[in-house]
Amino acid sequence: MKPGKTYKYRICNVGLKTSLNFRIQNHLMKLVEMEGSHTVQNIYESLDVHVGQCFSVLVTADKEPKAYYMVASTRFTKKVLTGKAIITYTNAKRGPPSPQLPAAPVGNWAWSLNQFRSFRWNLTASAARPNPQGSYHYGKINITRTIKLVNSASRVNGKLRYSINGVSHVDTSTPLKLAEYFRVANKVFKYDIIKDEPTAEDTPQKLIMAPNVINQTFRNFVEIIFENHEKSLQSWHLAGYSFFAAAIGPGKWSPEQRRNYNLLDAVSRHTIQVFPKSYAAILLTFDNAGMWNLRSELTENRYLGQQLYISVLSPARSLRDEYNIPDNALRCGIVKKLPFPPPYTI
């Protein structure tokens, strides 16, 4: 780094399972972006980055010209694993960085939760000019549907499976969107085999293995609650959408928790962590027609069933909402020899 210059670093956790803490020896980081959204530019000594999350920070080269360590270490693991890299000032004298690495946060996940609560959307930046981000008042929209998703683990025929509301997702030989587009979905899967509010019957002991597809009304404003009863931290990603991360809190969710929601400047993002024995609440409008994957970012969990699909159909079948399938698209399964359905129109 050149002395006096400011650099942008983008930090992404592309791991399979473990949360990381990232820090730069003797340097502060100014957070400016998170998963596509500009944030209030708070200063941090270190950042917890959970699986699937990305941050952008500004770092100014205003320290003694020498070499410094970047450090990424695992969080919430019995054994801490550490990765290091070196950044060097252009006018630095030769020599290794100080072996005294900056310390990671200690204790349980309360520190990480408090850091999450410090993240705020920058309401005066981004979006189509001249409209600032804050011109969209998501906190004033009536919620039309609340979906609570509870993750769990169990064994089926002696093999480990992960599930959502008692259903462990399995892929079908005919892709879900193809079956839906060719109007043969009823031959491939059933919609809404999980309830919006899981009951006592949806226990890990009664786990079902099946394609897990939720039918969602186009352009509805929806509240999704992730409830984690496990001892491990979870991370969730919703494809095709950004959502407002309204709240994370300990214990089970109840409607009274809405009093703790950030309804003004929660960051618009697409990945959210859920701490052990805790919940997370997100808000979004399902205005993007298609078949979208909601999944655990922990690769083992997703692969073994902890995912589902959300079907968002536009009743107008309009090209303004969704494109037609390309004429040369590969088809497989039961739709392989079916004729194309009537195309979407303007």
The CATH level-2 architecture of the largest domain is identified as Sandwich
What is the rounded Rg?
23 Å
Which structural class do you get from the secondary structure elements?
mainly beta
State the end-to-end CA separation. 53 Å
Number of domains: 2
Q: What's the total helix number?
A: 3
Instruction: Kindly estimate the percentage of residues that lie in beta strands according to DSSP.
Output: 35-45%
Determine and state the CATH class of the largest domain: Mainly Beta
Percent range of helical residues: under 10%
Give a count of the beta strands, DSSP E runs of length 2 or more. Answer: 22
CATH topology tier name of the largest domain: Immunoglobulin-like
Spans where pLDDT lies below 50 across 5 or more residues = none
Mean pLDDT: 94
Largest sheet: 6 strands, mixed
What topology does this entry show?
Elements: E1 6-12, E2 20-24, E3 29-34, E4 37-38, E5 43-44, E6 46-49, E7 54-60, E8 67-74, E9 82-88, H1 110-118, E10 145-156, E11 159-164, E12 167-168, H2 176-181, E13 208-209, E14 213-217, E15 221-228, E16 234-238, E17 243-250, E18 268-269, E19 271-274, E20 278-285, E21 290-296, H3 299-303, E22 307-313
Parallel strand pairs: 10-15, 12-13, 14-22
Antiparallel strand pairs: 1-7, 2-6, 2-8, 3-4, 3-5, 3-7, 8-9, 10-11, 15-20, 16-19, 16-21, 17-18, 17-20, 21-22
